[in-house]
Description:
Blueprint: E1 2-8, E2 11-20, E3 25-34, E4 40-49, E5 69-72, E6 82-85, H1 100-103, E7 116-120, E8 122-127, E9 132-138, E10 146-151, E11 157-169, E12 174-176, E13 180-186, H2 195-204, E14 215-218, H3 220-223, H4 229-242, E15 250-253, E16 258-260, E17 263-267, H5 276-284, E18 288-293, E19 297-298, H6 303-307, E20 325-326, E21 329-330, E22 332-333, H7 339-355, E23 360-363, H8 382-397, E24 402-405, E25 419-421, H9 450-459, E26 469-471, H10 485-498, E27 502-504, H11 513-520, E28 531-532, E29 543-550, E30 553-561, E31 571-572, H12 574-577, E32 585-589, E33 594-598, E34 604-605, E35 614-621, E36 628-632, E37 642-647, E38 651-657, E39 662-669, E40 674-679, E41 682-683, E42 687-690, E43 693-700, E44 703-710
Parallel strand pairs: 14-15, 14-27, 15-18, 18-23, 23-24, 24-25, 25-26
Antiparallel strand pairs: 1-2, 2-3, 3-12, 3-13, 4-11, 5-6, 5-8, 7-10, 8-9, 9-13, 10-11, 16-17, 19-22, 20-21, 28-29, 29-30, 30-35, 31-34, 32-33, 32-35, 36-39, 37-38, 38-44, 39-43, 40-41, 40-44, 42-43
Amino acid sequence: MLTASQSESGLRVNLTLANAHNHRWGLWKLSLYNEGSDPVWIAQIDLLDGSNPVTSHPLVLGSSPLPLRFYLNGWQSWSYTGTLNTEQSMPRSRLGPFQNPMVLNAGTPIFHRRGQFSSDFFTMLLNPFENVGLVVGFLSQQQHFGSLVFSTTPQPHLRVWANGDHTRLAPGKSMETDWLAAYPFAATDSEFPLESYLKAVAAVHGIDEFPPSPRGWCSWYYYYTNISEEDIRENLLRVQSWRSEVPLDLVQIDDGFESQVGDWLTFKSSFPHGVAPLAQEIREAGLQAGLWLAPFIVHPQSQLARQHPEWLLRKPSGRPVNAGFVWNTFATALDLTVPQALEYAAQVVHTAVYDWGFPYLKLDFLYAAALPGRYHQPTLTRAQVLRRGMETLRQAAGTETFLLGCGAPLGSVLGLVNAMRIGADISGSWQPEYLGHRWFFKGEPHMPAAHNAIRNTLTRAPLHRRWWINDPDCLLLRPDTRLTLPEVQTLASVIALSGGSLLLSDNLTTLPIERIRIAQVLLPLIEERPEVLDLLETDHPAHIRLDLTGAIGEWHLLAFINWSDEAVTPHLTRSRYRLPASKPYLLHDFWTDRHHIWEDDTTLELPPLAPHGISLLAAFPLPDEQPAWVGSTLHISQGLEARTWHIEETHLTCRLDLQHAATGSVYLYLPEFPRSAWLEGETIQWSTVSPSLYRFPVYLTQAATLNVAWK
């Protein structure tokens, strides 16, 4: 470790350098000391600046500076994230003050020209032709929000700084940035480029254990704020009655119970008894009770805003800050540097957990605590304010409470939340719309929409079970939305492949049986992290691979997403999915229930795929004169339901267990024609799909043993 120091006008700056991972990593941070007699106001702290063509060399990865690809990480949960090339421009919202305060870091610029990009917290740069790149990112955001900017003009360069937020550094006081890390990577490296960085961030925050991914029901996307006790109770009864077929563990009450956003301890007339009795009913039903809270954001018409105006975060003009257009108004925020305001937020969380009985809290709109404004305590950066606020809420909730962060800047909640929303809200339409209007809002990158939620679920897939449980938001199944059945199947598949949370959000009392079946095949959750194969190629990844191992051996789930508004004919190659060229595979397409043979290194042509649809294929190595499992319709993994697999000379035994009732088909490759088959001792009739491939219908009450004999 090396430290260098420089002083100017009473401000001393120390640069600390270190390296790690066999000197492959560079690590550095800056410390500021005010040795003068007057306060200093810190706007930003530059840690890397290659923008000066006189003093800096162009950024070169490989043998040439361009072209490059830039992985852009958005500031908070809902913020656009994806990979862009230098011929593109950054997606941006046209909604200005209606949305930007929610999704954009005030210290990170948004560019309108091609070849100029910005990212928050971390980024990746890649030379796609030579497959070499660079990872750059802060190891935490406990001290400052970090901004990273890449531009192709006047020369390719990268700038990185810590947002000072015009914080007051008093005489005799100091501040330091979080560590910034940078390291190169190459396509020949054995691990995913971000792997080392994500592990280092987790280590800094003491993240090493993860609970099971939640599975349950949420009230929001059907009832929104028009909800009542009876609505919760009716859906609770349905969840309870479904448990033998669709085993959900959680019932979460979302927005709409409180008398006003900010007035969390009083209730609407539709909740005359509050929410504590409902929490008790949920517990008595053998389920976990969850509650939505947004403890840092404030409705301007709330009693809190009228009775405690001194708690509100204000602009230099004295007016409350704009926290974005929500609930058909411009919301505002608490100033958490006012001790009473932070105490109130902590009281709300403590009351919800210990007085009302909710061991699961969804904490939403958390960005509101980190908006630019005139803070009561001007010596804290926005990142410090939010981090200390979240630490206070975690302490109020206790270590056993499950916390889901939402609308939160990623780096501020690390190690404090169990799960994290990593994309925009879902909605009942593929593209964004508002009050039925679509044209103006189409293409909005951060707004609620299935398109935006699925995109970020894929572009932030690597964070799952490295930093937290990824929350891809809810699954909407009801047929009366504007989502087509292929779009619902895509949403369900991506949620399942993400390994993260699964929450249904329909009126369960009216859900048709064929849509209930979609939820059923996702349970139990896979929970593994997928590999998004084209993550560093596009902001709309279309190729996903998930390697699975079970009693039947090893197999792969391969997915292809049609992002187009038109039907397409998929043409899949072995190289794209990193499968060996010489090995033949037998494929089962889950949603069409069709089989395909993929011989050698040929291109596989699939049937036309609907707009926004998905092909979800289980790839099994073609067996050589040995019985083999080659797919099922029981579970989306198409194999994890087989818990034991035993082969004798002319007979096999397979124990099926989904932990819930199910009906479907199992497909087996057999070297000889079947002689008999029975399930739990009862004879079943099979059918021939193709030579050596047979379909066996099965019904499980929870588990059953399948026996098959051949000649």
